[in-house]
Every structure is written in structure tokens, then in C-alpha cells.
Design the sequence.
């Protein structure tokens, strides 16, 4: 058996080598990325195009990165653009739009384009280059010929002196150092590249080789990470019954305080705190992040809203379904940590309770629906202002709540036999594997109804397209739980103004909708000097402490400075409406409730 497997393995490798080498020979576009001044945060890019037959050739830089729904204007970081023919003669060009360069190509067969990219923004979605490493986020590095997104390309990385590692999900071109193949620009743009001296280790899970590339050091335990990340991989794969990759790359950036992640076709980029691996809560959070981004292999990268692919890299790509794409993934990430045995059922319920409290304490949850939050991601999610808490809600947070409700509804309707896992797998099988396309709003809903055997019309009206507060008591009762509010008996006044101490002054940074501050005219940027004549010490929470000591319903005088002018405001205080939910078991849950609970929490 071992010998037969070995022979088959080598034949497979030989076939892939021939295929990849052949693709390289036929490729019309080749990039070379080098670093002459990494300490100044620059990458030098050369783009070679062969087989051109156009009089005028346009090349474009994407304006956004898939998975991060904000127009980031990557072209702003481009400089020193030039174009030459095969003999080195300069070709004229003109920049015609913010991200388009029009070259007078004169039907020259071979054209070489050179430009530099400045990269100095630390995030999982933007390029960062310094003397220690280069992280290349492809949508901000590689241009594409207009109308030719489907063309293949190769990329050669020329590491800076002392750098010896390249980590990427792109397929290597055999026999060519640090050279990789992309079948089209969608694949290229979905394959981040880490260059430097990163610590690389591997593990195998779900039949897939996984590479972990650690930049920035840290107190991580490789063997522990291998084992724990493998458990996450196995649990996520179990939902769909198959893993779509043969090779997967985790690029992990360890900083003093890091976070966030971005999903890709067969890789992800994670931010982490380099010394947080020994802290149980921080480590649990890292595993949750791993689960979140890995689950995106199916949810978004393959099973996707119909609007998210093929992509238009020139402008926004709108969908009302990010509450599924991201929100459901946010629900599953902690659930996979629970299923993998890293948290207890009680700990998981505490995490759920915190998410429920977060949404309930944000006034915008009763203003913006989950579908609206998804559609407006381009203008709201990544551009919050002082009023965002009042006017909007995160499709991550609200989507996770909707996922929990739908999961419980499905489990209830099927007597604990089927849940949200079954919906996700069915949508994946039907629309990605069978039809090869994304799903519509109506199709996802119809699949949930088919599995539940009941209508979700009212559910969507209330929670997806509407802003009704969830009936947690009803849904949690399906699993023999109920909701408790630890703040229910807390009778204290509040102002509803969030403040910060800056340069010895107490400044208002936000005002909650319908709070006393909102109703009686306290504004963002006001400096609060005193309450009822009592001067405030410029220390954190001093204002909250003083207001909480006042009787509910009393009227106080708040002295402020606004734009250099003193004002006195009469403010009538009300009870602090904040909630702190806790999920608790009902007494003597029924057999039916216990069946739902067992399936839900993997007891």
C-alpha cells in the first residue's frame, strides 16, 4: 500500500510540474517584484506583457480588495510609472482615470511597464514593507490590462538581501526560484505574499498540507499550534464533508497588539499579539480568528452571494448578504472553538451573551437592518463616525445573532436532527458545486425553508430586512435556556455621553440616541467642566461616577465649553438602559429541549 501510494504521489507531482511549466511557457504576463529601498517602504514592480496587438493599451490598479468592502484607492501609492518596448524605447502614456494608465502601445508585441508602490499601512488588507519583511497585498501591488482579468500570469519575487522565505498560496513554477503561477487575476488578487525571514512550519489536517508563516516572533508553541489549528480545520471541514484545497497558507503577523484577518482562496492573513499566546483568553481569541478565516474557504470564497464574483475591481460590488457571508462566519468561529473542545458549554454561552448584549446596547441595531448594513458596507462599516452607534449596526454582530436564531429555529423544527450546518452544506452543494455560481437572497432563504420544513417569511421580515429586537426568550427556550439581564435591577442615572480625557480636559466623543445628553443638547467635542457646580477631575469615568450618584429623574446643570464659549445646560437624567445578558438553563428542561441542546452545543 505504501509503495503504491508513493508511485501515485510522484506521478501526480510530475503531472503538476509539466502542467505548471507549460502554463508558464504560455503566459502572456509576467511580474517581477524587487526591493531596492525596503527601509523606505517601497516595492519595485516590473510588468512584462507579450503578445500585445493593441494600438492603445490600458492597465489598471484595483481600487478595493475582495473581502474588505471599502474603496481604498490603491493607485494613490503608485509612482515612477513608465513603459518601454522590447528595444527599450520609451512609450508615451497618459493617466486617464484615478486608477488607469493609457499607453501608446503601437501594436508592439512586447511591452515592459515599471512602477513603484509605497507600502506602509499595517493591516491584513494593505501592503507593508520595511527592512525586516514585505507583506504584499496583491490588489495594491499588481496592475492588470483592462478587459483581460481572465489572463494568466507569473510572478517572480526577488527577496531583499538577507531575506530567504516567500510564503503564498500561489502555485510555484518548478525550476524557477520564487516564481509562481496564477491562472487569472482573480486568483492572483486572492493570493497574498509574505517575503522575509518568517518562521515557517507545517501540519496536515483534513488531508490538506497547511503552512504557517509567522512574522514578528512571539511566545507561541509550534507543536501546540499544529495540534490546535488542526482540530479547527477538521471541525470546519466536517460541515461540508470535503476540503477544497491541497495546500493552505496561514500568514500570521505578530505585533505588540495585533488583530484582524482576511480570507483568501487558499490562504489567510491574520494579525496577532506576539506575546498573547500564553494568555488563555488571548489564545482562545486567536483560535477563533483561525476558525473564522478558515470557514471562509467555503462561506464567501466558494459559497457566495451572487454579487461577489466575478469581481469589478474598478468600483463597489454591492450585496445585501454580508450578514451571511461575514455574520454567519462570526457565529461559527466561536462555535468551532467550542466544538473542538477548547471552551466549555458555559464559556461558549457567555460569549454568545456578550454578543447579544453588544447588539442590544447599540441604538443603531433598531435603525439599520442586517440587509441594509450589508449593502451600505462600502460607506459605513469601515468609515465610522461619532454617530455610527446611533445609525448603524455591524453586519458581523447582527449577522451572528441572526445565525444563532436561525440555527435554533432549524433545530426546533427538525427535533434536533438538522441545523444551520445542513443549510450551509446544501447551499454549497447546490450553488457552488452543481451550478457553479453564487446564490441570491431568495435562494438562501428557500434552502433554509426546505430543510426546516417551514416558512421563514416572518423571520426575514423581522430580523433580516427589519429591525425588530430578537425574542431571545422564545428561541433559547428551544434548547432549554432562557435569558437573564444582570443589569435588570441596576437603578442608576446616566448621561449617555461617551467622553475621553485629553490634555487635562473631559471631551465628549459620542452621544447615544434618546439619552439625556441627546435630548438636552450635549454635543460631540463639548468640554464638560462641572455638574451642579461640582468641578470634575480630568480622570476616566469621573463623569459617569458623578452622574450615577444622582437620583433618576433629577435635573442637573451641566457646564460646558463649546467652541471656546461657556454654556450651561439643564439636563434631566434617566435610568441607564444598558443590558448585560446571561444565558441560563431553565429548570427541568424537557427531552425535546435537551435533544436540541445536545446537537447545538455538541454535548
Sequence:
Amino acid at each position: 500500500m505504501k509503495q503504491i501510494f508513493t508511485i501515485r504521489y510522484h506521478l501526480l507531482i510530475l503531472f503538476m510540474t509539466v502542467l505548471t511549466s507549460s502554463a508558464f511557457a504560455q503566459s502572456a504576463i509576467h511580474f517581477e517584484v524587487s526591493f531596492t529601498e525596503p527601509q523606505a517602504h517601497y516595492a519595485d514592480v516590473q510588468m512584462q506583457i507579450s503578445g500585445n496587438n493593441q494600438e492603445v493599451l490600458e492597465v489598471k490598479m484595483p481600487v478595493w480588495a475582495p473581502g474588505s468592502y471599502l474603496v481604498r484607492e490603491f493607485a494613490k501609492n503608485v509612482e515612477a510609472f513608465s513603459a518601454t518596448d522590447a528595444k527599450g524605447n520609451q512609450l508615451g502614456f497618459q493617466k486617464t482615470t484615478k486608477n488607469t494608465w493609457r499607453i501608446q502601445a503601437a501594436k508592439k508585441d512586447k511591452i515592459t511597464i515599471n512602477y513603484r508602490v509605497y507600502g506602509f499601512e499595517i493591516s491584513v488588507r494593505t501592503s507593508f514593507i520595511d527592512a525586516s519583511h514585505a507583506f504584499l497585498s496583491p490588489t495594491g501591488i499588481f496592475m492588470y490590462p483592462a478587459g483581460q482579468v481572465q489572463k494568466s500570469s507569473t510572478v517572480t519575487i526577488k527577496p531583499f538581501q538577507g531575506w530567504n522565505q516567500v510564503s503564498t498560496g500561489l502555485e510555484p513554477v518548478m525550476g524557477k526560484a520564487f516564481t509562481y503561477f496564477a491562472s487569472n487575476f482573480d486568483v492572483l488578487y486572492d493570493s497574498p505574499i509574505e517575503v522575509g525571514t518568517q518562521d515557517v512550519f507545517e501540519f496536515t489536517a483534513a488531508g490538506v498540507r497547511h503552512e504557517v508563516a509567522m512574522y514578528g516572533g512571539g511566545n507561541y508553541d509550534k507543536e501546540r499550534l499544529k495540534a490546535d489549528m488542526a482540530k479547527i480545520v477538521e471541525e470546519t471541514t466536517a460541515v461540508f464533508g470535503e476540503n477544497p484545497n491541497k495546500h493552505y497558507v496561514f500568514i500570521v503577523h505578530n505585533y505588540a497588539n495585533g488583530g484582524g484577518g482576511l480570507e483568501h482562496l487558499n490562504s489567510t492573513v491574520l494579525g496577532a499579539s506576539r506575546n498573547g499566546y500564553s494568555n488563555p483568553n488571548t489564545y482562545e481569541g486567536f483560535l477563533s480568528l483561525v476558525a473564522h478565516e478558515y470557514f471562509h474557504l467555503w462561506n464567501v470564497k466558494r459559497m457566495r452571494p451572487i454579487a461577489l464574483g466575478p469581481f469589478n475591481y474598478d468600483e463597489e460590488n454591492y450585496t445585501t448578504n454580508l450578514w451571511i457571508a461575514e455574520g454567519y462566519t462570526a457565529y461559527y468561529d466561536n462555535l468551532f472553538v467550542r466544538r473542538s473542545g477548547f471552551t466549555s458549554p458555559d464559556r461558549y454561552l457567555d460569549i454568545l451573551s456578550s454578543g447579544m448584549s453588544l447588539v442590544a446596547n447599540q441604538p443603531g441595531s433598531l435603525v439599520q437592518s442586517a440587509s441594509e448594513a450589508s449593502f451600505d458596507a462600502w460607506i459605513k462599516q469601515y468609515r465610522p463616525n461619532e454617530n455610527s452607534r446611533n445609525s448603524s449596526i455591524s453586519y458581523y454582530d447582527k449577522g451572528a445573532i441572526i445565525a444563532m436564531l436561525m440555527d435554533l429555529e432549524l433545530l426546533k423544527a427538525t427535533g434536533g436532527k438538522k441545523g444551520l450546518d445542513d443549510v450551509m452544506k446544501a447551499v454549497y452543494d447546490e450553488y457552488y458545486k452543481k451550478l457553479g455560481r453564487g446564490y441570491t437572497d431568495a435562494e438562501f432563504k428557500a434552502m433554509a425553508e426546505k430543510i426546516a420544513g417551514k416558512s421563514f417569511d416572518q423571520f426575514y421580515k423581522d430580523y433580516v430586512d427589519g429591525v425588530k429586537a430578537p425574542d431571545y426568550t422564545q428561541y433559547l427556550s428551544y434548547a432549554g435556556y432562557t435569558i437573564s439581564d444582570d443589569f435588570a435591577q441596576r437603578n442608576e442615572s446616566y448621561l449617555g455621553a461617551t467622553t475621553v480625557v485629553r490634555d487635562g480636559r473631559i471631551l465628549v466623543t459620542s452621544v447615544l440616541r434618546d439619552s439625556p445628553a441627546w435630548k438636552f443638547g450635549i454635543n460631540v467635542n463639548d468640554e464638560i467642566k462641572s455638574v451642579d457646580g461640582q468641578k470634575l477631575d480630568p480622570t476616566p469615568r469621573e463623569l459617569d461616577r458623578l452622574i450615577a450618584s444622582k437620583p433618576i429623574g433629577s435635573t442637573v446643570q451641566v457646564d460646558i465649553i463649546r467652541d471656546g464659549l461657556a454654556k450651561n445646560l439643564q439636563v434631566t437624567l434617566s435610568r441607564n438602559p444598558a443590558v448585560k445578558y446571561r444565558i441560563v438553563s431553565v429548570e427541568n428542561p424537557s427531552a425535546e429541549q435537551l435533544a436540541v441542546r445536545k446537537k447545538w452545543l455538541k454535548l
